[in-house]
Amino acid sequence: MLRCEGIWLPERLKDLLTTCPPSDRSMLRSICVFAGSNSGTRDEYFDVARDLGRELALRDIGLIYGGASVGLMAVVADTVLACGGRVTGVIPEFLVKKEVAHPGLSDLRVVPSMHARKAQMAELADGFIALPGGFGTIEEFFEIVTWAQLGIHEKPCGLLNVCGYYTGVLEFLDHSAVEGFVKPEHRSMVLVNSRPEPLLDEFERYRAPRISKWMDAGRT
Predict the structure, then answer these.
(1) Which helix (H) or strand (E) holds 89?
(2) Residue 34 sits in which domain range?
């Protein structure tokens, strides 16, 4: 392990201390990242989480995430911190008590519930990205996409489809559109790439579709 300004970092992040050039300012002030509390079985998951953190810091985009010190969540946070970026964690009180809260963040906000956590992350972020993860990651991402579908926000939402991790989910969304449960315009709101850089480029260009969720009254 490597210590950087009071934060213990995995050796695999060591190179970031000397390879992060000055940042290029983005129009996006902060991105919320949903990610697994486990690291998965493939090195590629770790690598893309690290690359995402590095790219956020390079673009001067703050990280908003679930505040934990475990899994891919911690990889993103530690990388942003190692590159001199800003990290805000939002964590429910019961998880702090389980000693999974990250001790070295720029800002750690403790909230009373999972619902409060999601609401605060949504308020703080200008966009949302899901790395590979389990039930919680999927649930958090698609709730925020649903809010976009309902017009509650117009922020970009994207999946990092590393090693085809989300391919089955994307096929399901295509099927939902074909079967008439998701409008094609709303299906297009889920941006997808396997790499952080082009996905964030898409975020910079994103404009939300102007279309109601509901079908015409004559079809009800």
Answers:
(1) strand 87-92
(2) 30-204
3-state DSSP call for residue 38?
A: coil
Angle between helices 135-149 and 114-124 (to 10 degrees): 50
pLDDT tens string 149-158: 999 999 999 9
> Which residue blocks in the chain are alpha helix, DSSP H?
16-19, 43-58, 71-82, 93-97, 114-124, 135-149, 167-178, 184-187, 196-205
Place of tokens 């939402």: 157
Please state the domain count of the chain. 1
Q: What pLDDT digit, counting tens, does each position of 62-104 carry?
A: 999 999 999 999 999 999 999 999 999 999 999 998 879 999 9
Structural domain contains residue 116: yes
Q: For residue 36, is pLDDT > 60?
A: yes
| Residue 155 belongs to a domain | yes
Rounded distance between C-alpha atoms, residue 58 and residue 204, angstroms? 14
At residue 22, the pLDDT reads 52
Q: Of 32, 38, 27, 24, which Cα lies nearest the Cα of 52? A: 32
Listed residue (54, 52, 61, 50) closest to 25, CA to CA:
61
